[in-house]
Amino acid sequence: MTETPFCMVLTTTNSQENCDAIISRLLSAQLVACIQTLPVSSHYRWEGKICSDQEILLLMKTQSRHYQAVELAIREVHCYEIPQIIQVPVTDGFQAYLHWIETVTLHPEERG
């Protein structure tokens, strides 16, 4: 897969408390620029059964180079055994917005 400079990372959780922990962890570490949350109905197969749950979808905007750190941070605080953590490449966008993502997701050691 060709890497693009920016991406969205998606995850879901069934708990507002877990959602808040993920948001706090990622924003305080400057790994993502923005997280949007939406209520969703999820339907899936788990351990041989068809399941349906009300969940919270987190849409996170970041730089692709931060994906591994974002994934690790989510896994550290997520309440699911196997959480959805998916990277979606951003192939284009409003340049001022993409520049903002780049600016606010810089690690402190990268700041000049």
TrEMBL record:
Taxonomic path: Bacteria, Pseudomonadati, Pseudomonadota, Gammaproteobacteria, Vibrionales
Encoding gene (name): cutA
Annotated family: Belongs to the CutA family.
Superkingdom of source: Bacteria
Species assigned in the record: Vibrio mangrovi
SUPFAM superfamilies with a match to the protein in the record: GlnB-like
GO molecular function: copper ion binding
InterPro entries linked to this entry: Ion_tolerance_CutA, N-reg_PII-like_a/b, N-reg_PII/ATP_PRibTrfase_C
Protein name listed in UniProt: Divalent-cation tolerance protein CutA
GO biological-process terms attached to the record: response to metal ion
